[in-house]
Amino acid sequence: MNDLDLFSDPYGRDGQPVDGPPGRRGQRTARKKQRKRKRKNSAVVFFSLAILVAVLGTGGVLGYAFLDNRMNPPDYEGQGAGHVTVQVKEGDLGGTIAATLQKHDVIKSVRAFMKVYANEPDASKIQPGYYQMRLRMSSKAAMAHLLDSKSRSGNQIIISEGLRATEVFARLSQKTGIPAKDFVAASRNPRALGLPSWAKAPAGALNQVEGYLFPGRYDLNPNATAAQILKQMVARFNQEAERLDLVNASREVDMRPEQVITMASLIQAEGGKPQDLPKIARVVLNRFKIGWPLAFDTSVLYFLNKRTLDVRFKETETEHPYNTYRHKGLTPGPISNPGEAAIKAVLKPASGGWMYFVATDPHRKITKFAETKAEFDQLVAEFRQWQRKNPGN
């Protein structure tokens, strides 16, 4: 027996085999390790399946909830309760209307309302204005309310071009029930109303907001104060002034913005049809060029607070800063509230040599222009003939 044999003896000290025949001990060890790996892998697979089932189960619930929320968005039930005033502005479409309703807690969600809106054939008939709505209404009820003319406030008013501030106050008072004196009081604080910094009422101006109450259609909030309503009108003027780039455009005609508005107010008061306004602007400029007074009846009637076609000579002789028979140049401030066409006429007057104009048929708003005194006299005769045919005018 060699040394090698001593170490390869398959029996131990107690005579029992140590590892069986050569190679079997390694095989048993490998089998044990394989069984452990299988048990570990099975546990991992089982755990993974459990997580997958949980995830899929939760995902299914969430997915169902998501789809249900899309198909059946949250919505209130019934006709709602309480009252809230909501404004639909000019040009508002479904999404904007829905957002406004949700903001005031009229509806619960935009998507619920839009679902109703998309299926309502009369949805496009919703009119701008203020609506008396209820809180927490179903989208269907809210839609029906918007389509019901009785829900819309009756405080919609059209302010015509050329009205004086006092006339605007009277019409606003009649429409809203707010005393006219409240509008007068509010007009005395033009800065609080948002008038532009350049709109400074000069000495002798009869009304500080005259010229800046922009004509147009207004939806009046039934809960608004006199000051808030005037502020709304001044805000419209500021929008138009910005759109026309009034400050820079005034420089191009060598005028200040407030002079443009004053001249536009005179043109608006004298003019009949929009196409006549640029011609009247040219008459004004032609008269200024040679130092003639404007001699406008409308400026006299303004400080007399009258509306008539019959202006007497003694009235034209009355001493007053607004009397354009006695004072050359523009009046101290606007005499009416001009619209866009009159403002544009000042900025882009017509070309011509006219020195006179006469409203020969006021009812039909026919105005004729003349370059010479003889032509002017003929137009005056034509106007007098119209007066004879229309007594009382």
How would you describe this protein?
This protein has 393 residues and is mainly alpha-helical. It folds into three domains: 30 residues; 71 residues, 2-Layer Sandwich (Dna Ligase, domain 1), CATH 3.30.1490; 186 residues, no CATH class. It has 15 helices and six strands.
Give the secondary structure arrangement, pairings included.
Blueprint: H1 3-7, H2 24-71, E1 81-88, H3 94-103, H4 110-118, E2 129-135, H5 139-146, E3 156-159, H6 165-176, H7 180-187, E4 216-219, H8 226-243, H9 246-252, H10 257-270, H11 277-290, H12 297-304, H13 313-316, H14 340-347, E5 356-361, E6 366-370, H15 373-389
Antiparallel strand pairs: 1-2, 3-4, 5-6
What structural class do the secondary elements suggest? mainly alpha
The CA-CA distance between the termini, in Å, is 154 Å
Task: Sum up the overall morphology in one term.
Answer: elongated
Count of alpha and pi helical runs = 15
What's the order of the H and E elements?
HHEHHEHEHHEHHHHHHHEEH
Main sheet: strands, sense, barrel: 2 strands, antiparallel
By DSSP, the count of extended strands is: 6
Strand content: 5-15%
**Which regions have little confidence, pLDDT < 50, spanning 5+ residues?**
1-21, 61-67
Helix content: 40-55%
| Integer tally of domains | 3
Radius of gyration (Å): 43 Å
Main sheet strand line-up:
1-2
Overall average pLDDT? 86
